[in-house]
Amino acid sequence: MGQQPSTPKITAQDRAIFQMKQQRDKLKQYQKRLNVVVLRQTNLAKEALSKGDKERALFYLRSKKQQQSVISKTYEQLDNLENLIGTIEFKLIEKDVVYGLTQGNQVLQKLNTEMSVDKIDKLMDEVEDERLKVDEVSEILGTKNALSNSEELEVDEEFERMDREINGTVQLPDVANDTHKVSFPETPSTELEPEEAQKEEQQNTPNEPLVA
């Protein structure tokens, strides 16, 4: 079964406004009845005057005037009552607004107390300390996990052996595309003079061993 909605609490202000609205409605009903009476008295005065009965006609007109005076007073009372109801309702709205502002101000003060500058600075310092610890641990782990050149070479050799066992081939360096080629001296394009050729031949001929 669903939960029944709670009945709104009726305050003293609500009762007072309700009673004033009841009085307002009663005044409006009273005005309607008086208007009917005024219309009836107008018709009676016309009938009496048509019959030549001036006294009765004046009587109805005087009574009509009194009823109209009462109607005017009820209009004044009705206006005052309407203004009073409107003022009370507006004040209640103002009260709710002031109450809401008060509650909001209290919450804001509490938040300002909880989030003071000192607490924020302390929190930021704690966050920075934790970050430095994390960086320190990461640096230590990174140093421990770093491999030396010899270890990297051993890893490469193990990878090659594993590749031979699994694929049966080893990727050799591409000699054709190797940029580190051996350069040889170029052949002279000009012929040497006889003397220069003889000197060149003597330089290239190995020395004979001396005979004892």
UniProtKB/TrEMBL annotation:
Its main location: membrane. Residues 169-212 are annotated as: Disordered. It comes from the Eukaryota. InterPro entries: Snf7_fam (IPR005024). Keywords: Endosome, Membrane, Protein transport, Transport. GO terms for biological process: late endosome to vacuole transport via multivesicular body sorting pathway; protein transport; vesicle budding from membrane. It is found in: Endosome membrane. GO terms for cellular component: ESCRT III complex; multivesicular body. PANTHER family: CHARGED MULTIVESICULAR BODY PROTEIN, CHARGED MULTIVESICULAR BODY PROTEIN 6. Belongs to the SNF7 family. This is Snf7-domain-containing protein.
